[in-house]
């Protein structure tokens, strides 16, 4: 898939107010990292360094500013003051979105492949598995739910700083509109059980993209 095609996929998921950036991992120049960024991956293998650099280059494109996005001790990206954003990597590409700090924002990119059945019990709730039974290409839709949960997790983490499993979110899909809803199944302060995060998804060119903004 080309960068232009991925950009079109992002435009289907995010509103115009959300700035976007894309970088091919193979073309990422590690020398473009700020020293404070490079220090986080200086001991990593070259492939990991390029992937990390691609994410930061995509983030700078999304921000429209040449500023560092450092890695915190918990490995989460720390965006410049006044800004919020999210980074994802898959299939040789890095994508990023950015906006103002008050915005809830998240992105996840997955290769369009069936979610292995052996992880369904870990990833999917009973209700999600039941909803999938009547859908064609069940493994693909299970992957969409997986991506939606990854995306929702990225959205909540800067607010809660809490780590939890897939069971905390229950996702419903609206295939006719490309909308998903991720509902908290228990309190994750400052979110309460029953709170929901709504996003969009799109499938194309061998990828599944989910986003919340």
From TrEMBL:
Binding site for Mg(2+): 108, 110
UniProt key word Metal-binding: yes
Signal peptide: none
Segments forming domain 4'-phosphopantetheinyl transferase: 105-184
Annotated positions binding CoA: 48, 56, 88-89, 108, 150, 154
Domain 4'-phosphopantetheinyl transferase N-terminal as annotated: residue spans: 37-98
Highest taxon in the source lineage: Bacteria
UniProt catalytic activity: apo-[peptidyl-carrier protein] + CoA = holo-[peptidyl-carrier protein] + adenosine 3',5'-bisphosphate + H(+); apo-[aryl-carrier protein] + CoA = holo-[aryl-carrier protein] + adenosine 3',5'-bisphosphate + H(+)
One GO molecular-function entry: holo-[acyl-carrier-protein] synthase activity
Function according to Swiss-Prot or TrEMBL: Involved in the biosynthesis of the siderophore enterobactin (enterochelin), which is a macrocyclic trimeric lactone of N-(2,3-dihydroxybenzoyl)-serine. The serine trilactone serves as a scaffolding for the three catechol functionalities that provide hexadentate coordination for the tightly ligated iron(2+) atoms.
Family: Belongs to the P-Pant transferase superfamily. EntD family.
Subunit structure, interactors included: EntB, EntD, EntE, and EntF form a multienzyme complex called enterobactin synthase.
Protein name: Enterobactin synthase component D
Native source species: Pararhodobacter oceanensis
